[in-house]
Design goal:
The complex is a heterodimer of chains A (396) and B (262). Chain A folds into two domains: 228 residues, 3-Layer(aba) Sandwich (Peroxisomal Thiolase, Chain A, domain 1), CATH 3.40.47; 150 residues, Thiolase/Chalcone synthase (Peroxisomal Thiolase, Chain A, domain 1), CATH 3.40.47.10. Chain A is α/β, with parallel strands linked by helices and 396 residues long. Chain A contains eleven helices and 15 strands. Chain B is of the alpha+beta class and 262 residues long. Chain B has a single domain, classed as Peroxisomal Thiolase, Chain A, domain 1, CATH 3.40.47.10. Chain B has an eight-stranded mixed β-sheet, with helices on both faces. The chains are: A alpha/beta (396), B alpha+beta (262).
């Protein structure tokens, strides 16, 4: 896979990321090097419990342009912020010019899309009232809403749709970007992930007793749950992109056991990792760093450690970025692809922010601080509700 | 690349659709649109207790999947496509968010994701292979078929496609305006088997979405259920009309399907 003439030279030619650490490459590189966390309990949301959140600064001030103003909600603002960052919009415009609009597709991943807007509208109307006439599903809570917003704004007229498989959504969307090129349907695909903070996710994870009262500490012996974040990551995958970071292989599997808890042995995750290595034609020892899904719940961290031990090795360097940005749900896969891209380009293993004392039952080669190491192949894991697993191998 | 897949099974589930009836007759009659108060799909693979815990959307999707399953090997991938996803669960959660406690029931939350149906299906059937849940708004059918084609062709494996949407409860029904539940399933493989019903060749085009031919299908489109966008394809598969069908994709292009009945 990915060795056909159509995809051998496919790579990620442009990327942009917006998280609680800031907007763009330089702010994320600085935070990754210094081990800074964007999680804070001064989030301003009215919640019936205390928590730390990875909230993106200045989203309230983002102005959605008039021609696409009907899409205005927090999720599309996050996407627009990413579009305005690191010259991404200029790059997208150039890509459209180079290949032609109808050869440029869009596949995003999201879990909640613009449901935050629906929550606000729903809570503002009386219990027995109809939805306001002006409320539009298509522009807000449809999973396709953010994708449609970007398609409309950028004028990409190739195929577009949205992957919504909870917290593996945008990792799987990157797979589709490559598939659209390999089948010859597109020459370039805008992909990525977007999810905003919303009451549904926050109160939902609280109902499962999975929200930490502290900034989350993946892999730490004292970890006690998630911190939720919001984010947008955008990438352009193109043909003829030699020299760029590329997706070398992917694996997808289902646990088939439980909606919200992985099996203890991480069997489904291990299967996805094995598939990714096989498609990349790599051996386990070729992996230089594992970017963990690492949500900081005890069960998830242990299952992932077993999966990596089984399919890669116990000693491989690994870290989770969720102590820095929180769990950004459907956006997490794409965010972590872009941060892994930075790690490959800069030659660094990001630190496991928030780690104080490593749990002896997780992988042993996890460190709190950033390390300078030349990297060739990185494995990035994403798992989600429904027992959905996606593993990606990114190569230089 | 050879762009043909073989269709080994096709199914339509809706309130008045009789599983044993010829698909062409069903489409011509339009009786699959008969309203039935409180109708819910009842998949055989779930015990009654599990059925009570799951939304009408998930029950419908699982019913479609279990009809396809005998036509697919264990390594088949699954694509679930829905424009509206878990609408009933969303409404229950939104009601909870109107209260100061915002207390959401944990099972409701884990079943609120768009891939609740695909996740529950993999659990019910013990499936370990890839399952993807996609949305393309009004073009969800085209997107689902496109994804199905890509996954089957590039991974050289069978794929089950489950397309489903059901009406939402009030007040979401006033903004999400579909009126009849419907699920359509298709089982594809890359190699022709003796049971293959049709060979379908896929390509992109810029011609408009194909019209339906039967009165039943025309009435179905008026229900605004995005799943019914697949009816022109079902008509050709069942022998009503011949040749190509174009399914709309977001962005303005179309997915051309050239159908040869076997």
């Amino acid at each position: 896979m990915f060795t056909s003439p159509e995809t051998a030279n496919c790579g990620i030619t442009h990327s942009s990321v917006v998280t609680s650490l800031g907007w763009g490459r330089s702010s994320h590189l600085a935070a990754m090097r210094q081990g800074v966390s964007g999680l804070s309990d001064r989030h301003g949301l009215e919640l019936p419990f205390d928590c730390h959140l990875g909230k993106v600064a200045d989203i309230e001030a983002v102005k959605i342009p008039g021609k696409v103003a009907e899409y205005d909600n927090r999720a599309t603002r996050l996407a627009f912020a990413a579009l305005m960052t690191d010259q991404f919009e200029q790059a997208a415009t150039e890509v459209r010019r180079r290949w032609g609009a109808d050869r440029c597709g869009i596949v995003l991943g999201t879990s909640t899309s613009g449901v935050e807007k629906l929550e606000n509208v729903y809570r503002s109307i009386p219990n027995d009232a109809a939805m306001p006439e002006e409320y539009s599903v298509r522009h807000h809570d449809s999973q396709q809403a953010v994708t449609a917003f970007l398609q409309s704004y950028l004028g990409f007229t190739g195929p577009s749709y949205t992957i919504s498989t909870a917290c593996s959504s945008s990792a799987k969307a990157l797979v589709d970007a490559y598939q659209l090129i390999e089948t010859g349907f597109c020459d370039a695909v805008l992909t990525g992930g977007v999810d905003s903070l919303c009451l549904t996710s926050l109160n939902g994870f609280e109902s499962l007793e999975l929200i930490s009262r502290f900034p989350c500490r993946p892999c730490d012996v004292s970890r006690d749950g998630l911190s939720i974040g919001e984010a947008a990551a955008l990438m352009i995958v193109e043909r003829d992109a030699s020299g760029c970071i590329r997706l070398a292989g992917y694996g997808e599997s289902s646990d088939g056991t439980n909606m919200s808890t992985p099996p203890e042995d991480g069997a489904g995750a291990a299967e996805a990792i094995r598939q990714a290595l096989s498609r990349a034609r790599l051996s386990p020892e070729d992996i230089d760093y594992v970017n963990l899904h690492g949500t900081a719940t005890t069960v998830n961290d242990l299952a992932e450690a077993r999966a990596v031990e089984t399919a890669v090795s116990r000693s491989v360097p690994a870290s989770s970025l969720k102590g820095a940005i929180g769990h950004t749900l459907g956006a997490a896969g794409a965010i972590e692809v872009v941060l892994s891209q930075y790690a490959l380009e800069e030659g660094m293993i990001p630190g496991n922010t928030g780690l104080v004392e490593l749990d002896p039952n997780v992988l042993p080669n996890v460190q709190a601080g950033c390390r300078d190491v030349t990297l060739q192949h990185v494995l990035s894991n994403s798992f989600g509700f429904g027992g959905t697993n996606c593993a990606l191998v990114l190569s230089k | 690349m050879q762009n043909t897949l073989f269709l080994n099974n096709v199914t339509l589930i809706a309130p008045g659709a009789d599983e044993g009836r010829d698909l062409a007759d069903t489409l011509r009659s339009g009786e699959f649109l008969l309203p039935e108060e409180g109708w819910k799909a009842a998949p055989d693979c779930l015990p009654p207790r599990s059925r009570r815990r799951l939304s009408p959307q998930t029950l419908l999707a699982i019913s479609v999947a279990e009809r396809l399953n005998p036509s697919l090997s264990q390594d088949a991938a699954w694509v679930f496509a829905s424009a509206y996803g878990e609408g009933e669960t969303l409404k229950v959660i939104l009601d909870a968010l109107r209260t100061p406690e915002m207390a959401i029931r944990p099972l409701r939350f884990q079943n609120s994701v768009h891939n609740a149906a695909s996740g529950q299906w993999t659990i019910a059937a013990g499936i370990r292979s890839a399952a993807t849940s996609i949305c393309g708004s009004d073009c969800t059918v085209g997107a689902g078929l496109l994804k199905t084609f890509m996954q089957a062709k590039l991974e050289d494996r069978p794929v089950g496609l489950v397309m489903y949407d059901t009406p939402l409860p009030f007040p979401l029904s006033t903004s999400h305006r579909l009126t009849v539940p419907a699920g359509i399933g298709m089982a594809f493989s890359t190699k022709q088997s003796p049971n293959a019903k049709a060979a379908i060749e896929f390509s992109l085009c810029d011609t408009p979405h194909s019209a339906v031919l039967t009165e039943g299908a025309k009435k179905a489109l008026a229900t605004r259920n995005p799943v019914f966008s697949a009816l022109p394809l079902l008509e050709r598969i069942s022998g009503i009309g011949e040749g190509e069908v174009v399914l709309q994709l977001n962005g303005g292009s179309g997915l051309r399907t050239k159908i040869t009945r076997l």
